[in-house]
Amino acid sequence: MNKILFRLLSKKIGAKFELHVLMRRTAKDFGIAAPRTAGLSAPELLRAYAQFTSDAAARSISGGDDLRALRRRLYLMAYRLGRTLCRWLRPRDERDCLAIITLLYRNIGIAIGEDKPGKFIVKKCYFSGFYTPGTCAVISAIDKGIFAGIYRGGKLRFLSRITEGDRECRADFAKLKVTYKKERERSGK
């Protein structure tokens, strides 16, 4: 794995970069302008993103938007981001993928870990203070896309959510069988 880039992403600058990219791309998928975020600290930017996504999802739900199409757009955007990160970070195996997921989510205030292979648990989620069960269900398409992008395919399925009154979020992730060495050879890296 590209340790230099991984370390850079683990710094505050990495968190800010991640949030700026998410803000711009999420706004595009909602078809609205992203709020101005220049000069915000990482915590301020996180709060702005949480409020922005909560408001945008709530407007889409109450406005009768096609939520299936919206979730698909959010999924594809996040999937592409995950694949781009894979090209940059070059994970060697599933352990590296888990390290990337853990870092990305830590950057946005989410404490995630793998309980057992393919079983993920979130004990703390910054966004749970902003999201309703409905807005969480819409925005979780981003989680599904990021996971599939980082792990080179697969399907994330939520079993419980903090926003629905549970103490933690639990999710299963059915990974595709990927041979990381063969994929690197195909891409020439």
Overall mean pLDDT stands at: 93
Q: Largest sheet, if any?
A: 4 strands, antiparallel
Using the alpha-carbon principal axes, give the shape. globular
Strand order of the largest sheet: 1-2-4-3
Low-confidence stretches: none
Helix content: 55-70%
Number of strands: 4
Query: First CA to last CA: what distance?
Result: 11 Å
How many whole angstroms does the radius of gyration measure? 16 Å
Question: Could you please describe the fold and organization of this structure?
Answer:
The protein has 189 residues and is an alpha+beta fold. It contains 7 helices and 4 strands. Helices cover 58% and strands 14% of the residues. A 4-stranded antiparallel β-sheet has the order 1-2-4-3. The mean pLDDT is 93.
Jot down its keywords:
189 residues; alpha+beta; 4-stranded antiparallel beta sheet
